Amino acid sequence: MSEVVHTGHHDDHDHGPEKGILRWLYTTNHKDIGTLYLWFSFLMLFIGGALALVIRTELFQPGLQFIEPAFFNQMTTNHGLIMVFGAIMPAFVGLANWLLPMQVGAPDMALPRMNNLSFWIMPFAFGMMISTFFMDGGGPNFGWTFYAPLSTAYGPPSTTYFIFAVHLMGASSIMGSINIIATILNMRAPGMTLMKMPLFVWTWLITAFLLIAVMPVLAGAVTMMLFDIHFGTSFFNAAGGGDPVMFQHIFWFFGHPEVYIMILPAFGVVSHIIPTFARKPLFGYTSMVYAIASIAILSFVVWAHHMFTVGMPLFGQAFFMGATMVIAIPTGVKVFNWIATMWRGSMTFETPMLFALAFVILFTMGGFSGLMLSIVPADYQYHDTYFVVAHFHYVLVPGALFSIIAAVYFWFPKWTGKMYDEALGKLHFWLSFIGVNVTFFPQHFVGLAGMPRRIPDYALQFADFNMLSSVGAFIFGFSQLFFLYVLIKGIRSGKPAEGLSWEGAKGLEWTLPSPAPYHSFTNPPKVS
Amino acid sequence: MNTLKSITTKVALSLSLVLASGLALADELNLRAGVTEISKSVYDLHNLILLICVLIGVVVYGVMFVSMYLHRKSRGHEPAQFDDNHVLEIAWTIIPTLILVGMFIPSYGVLKEMYNTENAEMTVEVRGYQWKWEYKYVDEDYNNSFSFFSNLATPRAQIKNRQVKTETYLLEVDEPLRIPANRKVKFLVTAEDVIHAWWVPDFGIKRDAIPGIINELWAIVPEPGTYRGQCTELCGKDHGFMPIVVEVLPEVEFDLWYQDKVAEKIALDQSKKSQSDPEFLTVSSGG
Ligand code: HEM
Ligand SMILES: [Cu+2]
Ligand SMILES: [Cu+2]
Q1: Model's pTM, two decimal places?
Q2: Contact criterion met (CB below 8 Å) for A150 and A142
Q3: ipTM
Q4: Is A328 close to ligand 1, i.e. is its CB under 6 Å away?
Q5: In the CATH hierarchy, which fold is given to the domain comprising B2-71+83-114?
């Protein structure tokens, strides 16, 4: 068969994509859109990471060396916003796009055109948000939690653009979620009952419901801000009879489920990788599903643990303390299940496994500090210090982000048909592992010693650990550039991969050839 | 088995090393115990949960590392195929639940005590501004209440690295809050513009200062001394530059200082009264 015939027109049902840029603009294919999401989130990881390195550079030593406090606040705010909404969330949506149709035995996502729209909203949303840097008064500077009235009456003029950008992100997330739910509920292969679904599918089904439940709440919060800023309302303005604390209740009613939106799919990923490399079935599938579901439900009744210092009544404090502690139980169950999966397995330690194991260890660290933070009297000492910064970075970086990296290495052969370089992958792992711990472990100590978060300069007793933290941040940052190199090298010149790329891999996606065909399953497979 | 033995001894050795150096470092790395009864019980609580977390961690990570060592393919370990065990699953649901209940009860006790603002002997209103604190001593005769601002005292030259930084860099103010030792002081925390948070780590108290809302805190400080804290809620550009300094004076000394301040205030009001119109008077006596 000649090259010309193949690219000119297609006579088989497996027609290929359009050529050039139009392929990406018009695509309704789940793999193309997944690829777009993943590269977009990777770009955002680097932008958000660059901002983080600006922060760590300024904090390398006490005193103001490089930037002014007002700019520093823009850095922390946009770092948080870009990482949460631009890096972690779209990366998981990208994984969902790539994997869900393959894992449930479908040809594509259920709503392909909406899929295209939900991705193409994102560059505009972030383009708008980042453009605020160049506006009068600068970009958002009120923290990723944008508490009113700092973000309303006292916010920069560009806040309106920020609000609009958040609306766009929300619309995109909701469309993505509807698509995911429709795909999972309607397009499973015959015989795949709910309780036979792979765990990544389960976690995303539940995550999608969480998103649909809370994104409108976030939209409500920013809309009320918009009204306070432009239309003279006083939702959050005490002088006009409003309540700044109400903002926080609304924000965290979104915000706490949001943190689980960022970790449930990670649970799914790890639940695929560990059994594969332990060559042993996942321990406690049923309890895993129930644990995810109960975490999701509980995540709606713990929001005020972010607000222990606002002055709630005693009973309220006790309730939110208790509810938060309860979440530790299903979380613990998941960790125990992963370890029981490893137990008496036959383990090998390829790169995805290394990242998955680091996930289990370091996410658990974040769980411990979370448990400590749930103890109200102690939280008074920890709240808004670097202890909290250490906590959420442990659950988000070696937690959510490591799981994404693990997923990329794990499914890389299926996506590209090539193998990445294992030695380089391992090197990337060790650099990241060391970097992340050197960056964030000392932050527990400066937090306990009393260093507040979100400050551009600090007292002298915090100096040593901050310096260490900054060194770690640079190691971590540059090892992600190395990741980019490993990926490109793999795509360009990796060895061809087999359909079943890992000895112990189970699941429908591994029954497809590598790379997977453009339309995953044109004939539904049978699941017994 | 021999290797296992030598590994356990090695692990035990290094653990005790870590523990020993840990104890030496503990003071520097751990939460501070503070000086009030409350802050000390918070410290005990913190140590308790930290210990529980460490113990759980030792077990969980221990099992994990043993598994990673023993159950590898390179040692020729054949995979088992079990995928559930109901006894285990029930155990690791029930046991954590019990541990959590055990943590909840003492925590609630401390919390309840912290919420008991009754029987305060004096009241100070703490008000956050962008970017300074105002302290108002609420006198029994409200007209004699006096207040002052507390600003960062660190010179700009130190911040911009043109001068050597002193030991209390960024933690010093022009006029500290003064309170007496051994008396129950109630703080009414609020703010003028955006949300701030008032935190004195050594007293174990922190509360958001929110415009339109008055939050209550209290402390009894047994030891005179100078205690430092910082604003802990992002409040704009100079959030990092509005420290809190509380000087705790022996009771007698405090009373003398307080009387002086009240006298000053009365004198000031008097001089205002003598030169102002009646309208002004009604405003000031309305409080
Ligand atoms: C055992 C599970 C967890 C518990 C008990 C827990 C508890 C808490 C508590 C009490 C706080 C508030 C601390 C404070 O501000 O004083 C907090 C903050 C936070 N947690 Fe967790 N957490 C857990 C897991 C997670 C997970 C899985 C994530 C995300 C993947 C997460 C992300 C965050 C974030 C982002 C914040 C800080 C938000 C901010 O103020 O900017 N946590 N956590
Ligand atoms: Cu939360
Ligand atoms: Cu502040």
Answers
A1: 0.93
A2: yes
A3: 0.91
A4: yes
A5: Helix Hairpins (1.10.287)
